[in-house]
Amino acid sequence: DIVKATDPSVPSPAMTALRSARLLEDLKEVSYPEGVDSPNPALNANATDGKFKYDRDFLLQFQDAYTEKPNIDWDARIKECIGDLSESRSKMGS
Amino acid sequence: DMSIEESTPSGPLTVFHSPEAFNVKHPLMNHWSLWFTKPPTPGQKDAWAHNLKEVISFDSVEEFWGVWNNIPKPSELAVKSDYHLFKAGVRPEWEDQQNKIGGKWAYQFKDKRAVPIDELWLHSMLAAIGETVEKDDDKEIMGVVLNCRKGFYRISLWTRTCQNKATLVDIGKKFKQVLGLSEKDILEFNSHADSAHSGTSRARSLLTV
User: Fold this and answer.
1) CA geometry: angle at B123 spanning B117 and B12, to 5°?
2) Residue contact A66–B18, C-beta within 8 A
3) Tens digit of each residue's pLDDT (9 = 90 or more) over A35-46
4) Which of B20, B65, B77, B134 to mutate to test the interface with A (most CBs of A within 10 A)?
């Protein structure tokens, strides 16, 4: 096995895939692996070019499938916009 | 490695097929922005506008989960924090031109320890990005908001208008289900104008479901 790079300035394979993957235009293009349910077809009976609705159960399936950060700047962004969580936890108790 | 290639499906690869080499993602009907309001620091003036920041915008299901899986959950936030998930290009404020004639369905969860707030906020966002709260032609949903306060959590659903009662009531009923509320719980709708005038969110409700 190759040891995964831990250099934070290099996007992980998952991040790279997230950035470079194309947006589906037709849900029928995809055959999902066994055990993964397709979106409720009734929701998309009138769907046009890439405008889809997704039910909660379909969306929840992704929770464990994409767990990587959305981009390499994420930690800095969270720190700037939200702050240090340990800080906010201590405020919560005060 | 030929054995891996041979077992790889020939069609588009989703994140379910390959978490590290997927080549398609699931588009959302709208582009969304997640905003956060930091609690003011003591003595800070005009804190609210100053502390409201857009964290990220995204337009796919996969990106949404990248955000949710790597961001503080509501139960971890300090009092006076807010999350706002709005359609991109709309500031999550009454003052935004696109919110001027709008309103919101809102519910306060007063038993902070008992309420599964992380799950309810997640479900609220999934209903928004999955576009399952309104009908295609309604075009009412602007965003959803979570307020963490000393005595309660509040989740709101902001709408573009406050006039079309039948449509808004349908939306309110759906949202009530999303929040897991029972028949006896009351979800209230107020126009932003009324909320602004009263200075609080205690204005007389226009609608209830």
Assistant:
1) 140
2) no
3) 999 998 889 888
4) B65
